Hints:
Largest sheet: 5 strands, mixed
Radius of gyration: 19 Å
Organism: Lederbergia citrisecunda
Number of helices: 7
Enzyme class: lyase
Strand order of the largest sheet: 2-1-3-4-5
Keywords: Metal-binding, Zinc
Helix content: 25-40%
Number of strands: 5
Strand content: 15-25%
EC number: 4.2.1.1
Structural class: alpha/beta
Pfam family, one: Pro_CA
Order of helices and strands: HEHEHEHHHHEE
Amino acid sequence: MTLLSEILEYNKTFVDEKLYEQYTTTKFPDKKLVILTCMDTRLIELLHKATNMKNGDVKVVKNAGAILSHPFGSIMRSLLIAVYELQADEVYVIGHHDCGMSVLDGEKMLEKITERGIEKETLDIIKNSGIDLNKWLEGFDSVEDSVKHSVDMIRSHPLMADEVPVHGLVINPETGKLDLVVDGYKR
Length: 187
């Protein structure tokens, strides 16, 4: 049985037995906040438990490293939609210790990309289009600095309302302990 078959088989049972009913909520976050966090597997349930959040409480936007790298990319658009369309009144950027982005090396990743069959010609086309793949694929040295950078980008975005506090935190993926990096109430 493939993983896809396994998922679809379970999903049929989930729907048939109406197990979804316990998760019923609206599209608006009850606690009126949006979190930008990392896609790390350790945070899937831990982050919600460590912050006392349940289904329906919060909008969550995830990417590698909880990094906002472009002011007009899909991450920023999602945060703006959460604020203006989905009634989020606060933004939290929550990075984590032991993040894979803290050790990411662009050159090594490009080696893995070519090992998986991406042609050198494709990489050359991208490079000749003005994209520095090494820089685009590199990680960060300090999760705290990375969180501060994302908070600053969100806070200073020309479309983000001044009254929206933007907080920065770092979570320990083993214990759930949160460390405050930026208190968005203190501007």
